[in-house]
């Protein structure tokens, strides 16, 4: 093992250990419900929420431990040179060989993930009353997801491999430009063509809810064109709402479970929050951050792609562009891990700001609090997550912190 191998191995072990430690602390914290939220769960519901968290955490531990163990076996039993030999055995050029190698790795990963996905859906989610997915829907979702991934991902990956194979020192800039265009295009393609492959989107029917949403959108100058209700209940009892796309492709989507189980004011408060993300430029800023991060990533990738010690760390006898992409992603693991802390913190700050915007512009502070409580209750959320678990995994702040901020915002005078 060379120094690069030691860095990657240490980073993988440290990351796994950190996440498992955070999970253990999170389970311990779930035993205590904050006094301000002690009326949210009955005794039976509180025990059920703890059992749900424990079940998910334990399966997560098994999955992460097995995943790491199998990867290390694959690595140290020289699985990458073996995979390289298989891919080259087809006799293709370097770009197609790279695509074959990625396809083989993707197939292995899918096979590994499949039993955990089945268990999570049909055992854990079923046991706690969330699952409404049939086996047929589950299978069709996997097939559609695979086909979409191949249709979209293959040309993009082929382009990246071709640029780094043939374009020389400027390859990283070309890759950055192509991926940036791809990221922008996804905001049009996904809500318009991809998401309808998996769910049915029905325009929100005329009535009090739609009238109030449109009236609110007018008061804040939000150019709302499309409001859809998605059949989320087809797969789960959990509720949500989200904003997608931009320009004429912009749409707001409400889960039918949200519309059916919450009051008009509660739904409106949730939408005010989602519109707040747009008005406060969170979506645009997030896209800019993603684009900048991608450029930095490709630049460092260009420096490491043909690094002999990086390939030697994985027992590769020759330097291959496709292998360099895989190995660099592993070398970059500690950087991504550390970047996750500020990015998650930034996301949580955005959620506070969107809450404040909703309160200021709609005046529905109590409806927002009530909606958040219902969403957490119906999903059996942990009401007392550990700070380390929050820092690592939560893009949204804990419920109690959000409620306190909302109440504070309601009492703060604004010009």
Automatic annotation (TrEMBL):
A single GO BP: CAAX-box protein processing
Cofactor, how bound (note): Binds 1 zinc ion per subunit.
Active-site residues from the entry: 274, 355
Entry cofactors: Zn(2+)
Gene Ontology MF: a single term: metal ion binding
Family annotation (InterPro entries): CAXX_Prtase_1 (IPR027057), Peptidase_M48 (IPR001915), Peptidase_M48_N (IPR032456)
Chain ranges of the Peptidase M48 domain: 203-408
Keyword Transport recorded: no
Gene3D superfamilies: Metalloproteases ('zincins'), catalytic domain (3.30.2010.10)
Extent of the signal sequence: 1-24
Subcellular localization(s) per the UniProt record: Endoplasmic reticulum membrane
CAAX prenyl protease 1 N-terminal domain boundaries: 29-200
Topology of this chain in the membrane: Multi-pass membrane protein
Keywords from the UniProt entry: Endoplasmic reticulum, Hydrolase, Membrane, Metal-binding, Metalloprotease, Protease, Signal, Transmembrane, Transmembrane helix, Zinc
Pfam families xrefs: Peptidase_M48, Peptidase_M48_N
Primary location group: endoplasmic reticulum
Keyword Hydrolase attributed: yes
Residues at which Zn(2+) binds: 273, 277, 351
Transmembrane spans: 59-77, 145-164, 171-193, 287-307, 319-339
Protein family membership: Belongs to the peptidase M48 family.
Name of this protein: STE24 endopeptidase
